[in-house]
Design goal:
By secondary structure, this protein is α/β, with parallel strands linked by helices. The chain is built from 19 helices and 12 strands. The strands form 3 sheets. The protein has a 6-stranded mixed β-sheet with strand order 6-9-10-3-11-12, sandwiched between helices. Strands 2-1-4-5 form a 4-stranded antiparallel β-sheet, with helices on one face. The chain has a two-stranded antiparallel ribbon with strand order 7-8. The chain binds adenosine-5'-triphosphate. The site of adenosine-5'-triphosphate has 12 residues, from helix 10.
Length: 581
């Protein structure tokens, strides 16, 4: 949990001030019974009114000081804990942003969200509690003990009897409940994941009429969370009364021995009242400490989960600084040399990509086709360094991709992924998201090439029409075309279209391709498609099969020598999926 040190350094002064006010407040609490004992024994006992007035005023002054200190530490603790949580969340977010796709896959989206929200809140609650009550508990506890011994050393022996019992109870409480709190957070991850799955797949769930099934899945996770939380708090609720019982037993013993002392005139009533008052404060302090330990175990479980993210070594290193630009004839060019890759590490399973070798020259269009799951998308994701290959090298623009900074590489390569993603906001905002500096004219031109301009202008507010979260109010084909425009506006050296026209009809698909060719004839392009028609005009076509390159060549060449390609092509011809163009 070393990562927390930086926040301690930032906020330690305010933290110490909060503790200072808290200590004064505790001191004020501790003085009250002693003053009261004197008022009872010396003032009331001897009917000394001026003494009562003088000490009464002193008690009032101390109470006012205590109240002022309580307000000051409340203000400080509130601001410190809020800012600390704000900083921690921000740093966690930045850390997650720096993660490779493999690291995000490893933690899972839902778990990262829980860590960023619920886990941070738990640590914040603990930090706040530390400044509000927790640090007060040991102060009041030890102070009460000292004051009690000072009042009557013999009577204080009772405390020695119950102290070890209470210590053992608190220790057991912590030890038993810690694993439960860790499991509660994991169960919360699962609840969040089912909610995320539902929201992401709501249309499919409704179409397949699987709402009841999904509800059951959520219920299972929710029940598990409920049961684990109940079990965790049950442990706390078993130990709290046991501790209470031990302290109340102590008070009873004091009243018993004190009663005997008053009878034998060796003790005064005021002393007994003050002593039991200190015992009550001690009880309160112990209960607070028990609560504090409960909060500590929860916060520890959460802090560890946050620490796993904060301390996770980045598995990808990007260069900093910019790389000299390549020769113009290499712009957009890509070379794969003996590239092998598997998602599951360490390797043991059949790699997803096996010994991939190919050259894509500047200005060329490369088509990639192959059965589902043959590794087409993975291949292009390696160019963007979403993942790094296990073996081999990838050269882009004449340089090994590992020599680029993250920003530089991703500025030069634009991808339109299989699953389009649009943000809530205006259409123009979504397209300009690809390049904030783009003028309106450039936006319209990109949309025109992507065959999006026409339908956008027909929307109720044209380019200013609002898109719902994830593009809910647009059709699949419309979303794809806006995504293509967003990628084009970046003016990349290499454009990757990963099945980016799967939702548009054959005519539009052809129109987009021909406009791309006309408008950007120097643009190097990779088109992944299930449809042979979308890639048949490419300068080169790679046919993927089971993670390996089955064949590579032009459409004509492949028809002549690749039975596999011929198979795909003739099957689509029979289905009428390819129109002669
Ligand atoms: N994030 C991931 N983690 C683990 N395995 C993955 C991941 N993404 C893809 N795979 C696996 O890698 C293999 C190749 O997937 P990839 O998406 O590259 O195939 P594809 O040819 O693009 O398929 P499709 O035509 O359906 O898009 C598949 O077996 C898939 O299950």
């Amino acid at each position: 949990m070393g990562y927390l040190r930086i926040y301690w350094k930032t906020y330690r002064v305010k933290f110490v001030f909060a503790l200072f006010f808290l200590s004064l407040e505790a001191l004020a609490d501790l003085m009250q019974p002693a003053l009261m004992s004197r008022i009872v024994d010396q003032g009331v006992g001897k009917a000394d009114l001026p003494f009562i007035e003088q000490f009464g005023l002193l008690m009032l002054t101390i109470t006012v000081i205590g109240a002022f200190c309580a307000s000051a530490r409340n203000v400080l603790s509130g601001s410190v804990s809020q800012r600390f949580a704000q900083d921690l969340r921000q740093d966690l977010y930045i850390k997650i942003q720096s993660f490779s796709q493999a690291q995000i896959d490893h933690f899972g989206n839902a778990s990262l969200i829980t860590r960023l929200t619920n886990d941070v809140t738990r640590v914040q609650t603990f930090a706040n509690g530390m400044m509000r009550i927790m640090a007060k508990a040991p102060l009041v506890g030890i102070g009460s003990l000292i004051m009690a011994i000072h009042l009557n050393a013999k009577l204080s022996l009772v405390l020695l009897g119950i102290a070890p019992i209470i210590a053992v109870l608190i220790f057991l409480n912590m030890k038993i409940s810690y694993p439960f709190f860790r499991n509660v957070q994991r169960a919360l991850d699962r609840v969040n994941r089912s909610m995320q799955d539902y929201l992401a797949g709501v249309r499919v769930i409704k179409v397949f009429n699987r709402s009841a099934y999904e509800q059951k899945k959520f219920q299972l996770n929710n029940n598990e969370l409920g049961e684990l939380s109940a079990a965790a708090s049950k442990i706390g609720s078993l130990f709290a009364p046991a501790i209470n019982l031990a302290v109340n037993g102590g008070i009873l013993a004091i009243l018993w021995f004190g009663g005997l002392g008053v009878n034998s005139d060796s003790m005064q009533v005021g002393t007994i009242i003050a002593f039991t008052n200190y015992m009550m404060q001690l009880l309160f302090a112990i209960m607070m400490m028990n609560n504090a330990f409960n909060m500590l175990v929860r916060a520890k479980a959460s802090a560890e989960r946050i620490g796993q993210v904060m301390n996770d070594e980045l598995d990808q290193r990007f260069q900093t600084g910019s790389l000299e630009l390549c020769a113009p004839e290499k712009k957009g060019a890509v070379q794969f040399r003996h590239v092998t890759f598997s998602y599951q590490k360490p390797e043991g399973q059949d790699p997803v990509l096996k010994d991939i070798n190919f050259d894509l020259d500047s200005g060329e269009t490369l088509g990639i086709i192959g059965p589902i799951g043959s590794g087409k998308s993975t291949l292009t994701q390696l160019i963007l360094r979403f993942y790094d290959p296990d073996k081999g090298t990838i050269v882009f623009n004449g340089n090994d991709i590992k020599r680029y900074s993250e920003g530089e590489l991703r500025k030069r390569v634009a991808i339109v992924p299989q699953r389009t993603f649009l943000f809530s906001g205006s259409v123009i905002g979504n397209i300009r998201w690809g390049n904030e500096q783009a003028s309106d004219e450039e936006v319209y031109e990109a949309a025109r090439i992507a065959d999006a301009d026409g339908f956008i202008r027909r929307l109720s507010h044209g380019y200013d029409s609002m898109i719902g979260q994830g593009g809910v109010n647009l059709s699949g084909g419309q979303k794809q075309r806006i995504s293509i425009a967003r990628a084009l506006i970046r003016k990349p050296d290499l454009l990757i279209l990963d099945d980016a026209t799967s939702a548009v009809d054959v005519r539009t698909d052809k129109l987009i391709r021909s406009r791309l060719k006309q408008a950007l004839n120097q643009l190097t392009c990779i088109i992944i498609s299930q449809k042979a028609a979308s890639i048949k005009d490419a300068d080169k076509i790679i046919v993927m099969n089971h993670g390996a390159i089955e064949a590579i060549g032009t459409h004509k060449e492949l028809l002549s020598f690749s039975a596999f390609y011929r198979g795909i092509y003739s099957m689509q011809m029979e289905r009428g999926g390819i129109q002669n163009d």
